[in-house]
Amino acid sequence: MKLLTVLVALSLICATCATCHEQILSCFEQRVNQRINEQIAVELKGHYTYLYLSHFFLQHDFYYPKAAKYFRAKSDEEMQHAEKFIDYQNQRGGTYSISSVEKKSDGKCAAITSLKKGFQCAVELEMDVTRALNSLLTDVSDVKAEIGNCEIDDGNKDLLLSQSILVTVNGTTKALNHHVCGDLESKLEKVEYVELGEMIAHDFLGHQLEDTKELANYVGTLEKFGDSESALGSYLVDKHLEL
Length: 243
Ligand SMILES: [Fe+2]
Fold this sequence. Notes:
It is a single chain. By secondary structure, the chain is mainly alpha-helical. It has a single domain, classed as Ferritin, core subunit, four-helix bundle (Ferritin, Up-down Bundle), CATH 1.20.1260.10. The chain has 8 helices and 3 strands, in the order αααααββαβαα. The chain has helices spanning 2-12, 20-56, 65-91, 115-141, 157-161, 181-187, 194-223, 231-239, and strands at 165-169, 172-175, 188-193. Helix 4 (115-141) runs antiparallel to helix 7 (194-223). It binds fe (ii) ion. Fe (ii) ion binds next to helix 2 and helix 3.
């Protein structure tokens, strides 16, 4: 029923649209564009949170200089992640936009009072990022159309249509442009942004496991010192931190 509503909406949108492929693309494209921009915001939040941690551990009463360098490198890495998505948005003819960026301040990040809390905050941050990436991958693997929001910039149509988008119509999956118009309008089942999904899985999700494990290792080492705020434990972990 929902799909039927989309198809009716598609048939009503601009009469000047050149092809049925552009019409089909337009409603799905709005959703993908928004989701990529949301992920850019998640990556920038990671960048900003790590930047905060890196300077926090340079304060005289929480002075752990190697941890500060470690978190600074993480901050730079998150900025690179954000820029990779921004570059991708531009390459595919999407529209990049950004909202205000705030550091993570819930959960373990609410009040950083020790090196252990700093690493616990980082673990939670990485778990947030992983959840967001999983959600994005799920969405782009089976894109739901934005009903009633089906306009895309005419100037970007060629780029947007050149993306690797697989469309399933009546049980048959092939590139969007290879489907017959009549079938697209009546038997559309699934739209998948293949290249975007591959990039998320290959370039981002693999690193998430590795990074989260590394941070969790430091939390575990600090916990072995018994006293949850052990000064000696924090000193030793900082001293032996691998940069
Ligand atoms: Fe990231």
